[in-house]
Design a protein that fits this description.
- The protein has 160 residues and is mostly helical.
- It has a domain of 33 residues.
- Strands 1-3-2 form a 3-stranded antiparallel beta sheet.
- A hairpin with a 7-residue loop joins strand 2 and strand 3.
- Helix 4 crosses helix 5.
Length: 160
Amino acid sequence: MDIIADLGSLAFGSRLKRMSEIGMQSVQDVYVLYGVDFETKDFPLFYYLSQKGEASIMEISEVLKVTHPAVIQTAKGLEKKGLIISKKSAEDARKRNLKLSKKGKNLLPKLEKIWTEIKALNNSIFENQKHNILEALKEIEDVWAEKTYIERFKEFHRIG
């Protein structure tokens, strides 16, 4: 019995969360397999900095579509591991910019190799399914970007 699956659209968020947890743990297992001390949850921020070079908390928050506190929390963990550094912005001393540390830059080639392997496996899984989950997620994200879920809920039920 799988109550989450049986609930269908009512448990949509719970099902995505469960899939996310399984996916994140699976990738974490790959890092462990390769002996790399890297957290799956840190990937988006670390990857963005590896591509951008240096970025502000605000910029990262906007690009990754996560809250400032989420960026700050992830950054603190990466700083504690010595993988990124934080410095005051040259343009505005009230703002902090993040960039990869020397240790982070040294780890990057190994991570890039792992990411290439993960992407290849994921592509082979997704491409062999009847429905492409990445395309379906994009469609739903676009719908919610157009109008939030709560706005749609109120309209659908003629509330307020």
